[in-house]
Each structure stands twice: as C-alpha cells, then as structure tokens.
C-alpha cells in the first residue's frame, strides 16, 4: 500500500479535490469527515460528473430538456459512500479479488475508521511482476529472520512457486515456514521438501 495517503475533507470544494489529484498524480482520494474518519472515496470520474461544459449548440435541439441544473460544489455531493476497504493485514490476493469482482481501482486501507494508506491495482501489479530472483531473496530473508539469523532452510522460487528445502523440528515449525513464504507478495504457492527431519532424543 501507499502510506501516508492523501485525503480530502468531505466539505472541500470539488476544485480543491481536483487540484490535489493533479498535484499528487493520483486518480482517487479517500474522503474523511471532521474527525478524520473515512466516509467515502472520490475519483476523477466523480469530479467530472456534471462539471463538463454544456454543448453550446444544444439549444438548437428541441427534444432536449434545457432546464438549468445546479452543479454539485462539494466533494460529499459526488463521492462514493461506503467504499470497499482493506486492512493492513489483509492478504493481497483477497484485495485483488475484491477489486476485480467489484470493478474497484483503488481501496483505502483502514484501522477502524482511520485511513492509514491506500492500495491500487497498480500497487498489486507491481508486487506480482517481480522476478523470481527478487522473490527468492525476500523469502530467504524472512526464513533467516525467523531462524534468528541462521540459514536453516533454503528457498528457491521458480515461476512464482516457492520451494523450501531443509529440516523441520515438528509440524508447527513446518507450517510457520510455509506461511512465511506464502506471505511474500508475488509468491503464488509454496512447496516444502524435507531433507532429514530432526529426531528428538532423550537422555539415557
């Protein structure tokens, strides 16, 4: 996710939101209330709605309703309420699934109602297209950290599939190592190859 995130106040003028999007090169902004809590999302399309100049030749067409309409002036009038959100610990695959099924291009990341970041399709794509060598390094780093700096397991990634080779004291340790590897963004699956399980011995 991107953090810190740029947000806009719900009662801000539409022009202010447009200026912020342009200045920060973003296409959507989380909308917050006076307490800083998330109340909606506003996109470029939302801001353009009813803001495009009327066709100057429209008066020549008698079939058109030319009654003047008030254009929205504040963000709260055009924002999408109750937006889909993510939490910092949510799996990237779940976020991507929501985005695809609901046709969402970006989602605010929240803790409670406080906005702590934003994640877009571009962010997810960036993590998924990393090379196997980068993924191998990241998986190995996490496994070595778990082992307090010791190189107990060897990680290799091929086509996004991580293979972990080494010894495991028990099923719990094996499960933890599998989860650690799976949580690296870009890893699609994990296989474990146990070389020589550690046998627990008791003193005679």
Descriptors for this entry?
204 residues; alpha/beta; 3-stranded mixed sheet; 7 helices
List the helices and strands and how they pair.
Layout: E1 8-9, H1 14-24, E2 28-32, E3 38-43, H2 44-48, H3 75-78, E4 80-81, H4 92-102, E5 106-111, E6 114-120, H5 121-128, H6 132-146, E7 153-158, E8 161-166, H7 171-182, E9 189-194
Parallel strand pairs: 1-2, 8-9
Antiparallel strand pairs: 2-3, 3-4, 5-6, 7-8
Helix pairs in contact: 6-7
- Contiguous uncertain segments of 5+ residues: none
| Radius of gyration computed on alpha carbons | 25 Å
Counting DSSP E segments of at least 2 residues, the number of strands comes to 9
What's the rounded overall pLDDT mean? Answer: 85
- Amino- and carboxy-terminal Cα gap: 55 Å
Q: In order across it, which strands form the biggest sheet?
A: 1-2-3-4
Quick one: overall form? elongated
Oligomer: single chain
User: What level of helicity do the residues show?
Assistant: 25-40%
Describe this structure in words.
- The protein is α/β, with parallel strands linked by helices.
- The protein has a four-stranded mixed β-sheet with strand order 1-2-3-4.
- The mean pLDDT is 85.
- The protein is elongated and about 75 Å long.
- The longest helix is centred in the last third of the chain and has 15 residues, at 132-146.
- Helices cover 32% and strands 23% of the residues.
């Amino acid at each position: 996710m991107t953090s810190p995130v740029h947000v806009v106040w719900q009662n801000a003028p539409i022009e202010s939101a447009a200026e912020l999007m342009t200045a920060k090169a973003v296409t959507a902004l989380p909308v917050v209330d006076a307490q800083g809590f998330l109340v909606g999302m506003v996109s470029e399309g939302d801001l353009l709605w009813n803001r495009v100049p009327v066709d100057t030749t429209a008066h020549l067409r008698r079939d058109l309703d030319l009654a003047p309409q008030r254009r929205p002036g504040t963000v709260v009038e055009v924002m999408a309420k109750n937006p889909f959100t993510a939490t910092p610990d949510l799996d990237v695959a779940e976020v991507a699934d929501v985005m695809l099924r609901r046709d969402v291009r970006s989602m605010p990341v929240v803790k409670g109602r406080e906005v702590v970041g934003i994640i877009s399709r571009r962010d997810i794509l960036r993590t998924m297209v990393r090379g196997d060598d980068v993924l191998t390094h990241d998986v190995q780093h996490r496994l070595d950290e778990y082992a307090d700096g010791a190189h107990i397991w060897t990680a290799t990634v091929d086509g996004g599939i991580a293979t972990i080779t080494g010894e495991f004291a028990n099923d719990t340790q094996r499960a933890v190592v599998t989860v650690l590897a799976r949580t690296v963004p870009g890893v699609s699956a994990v296989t474990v190859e146990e070389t020589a399980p550690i046998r627990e011995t008791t003193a005679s």
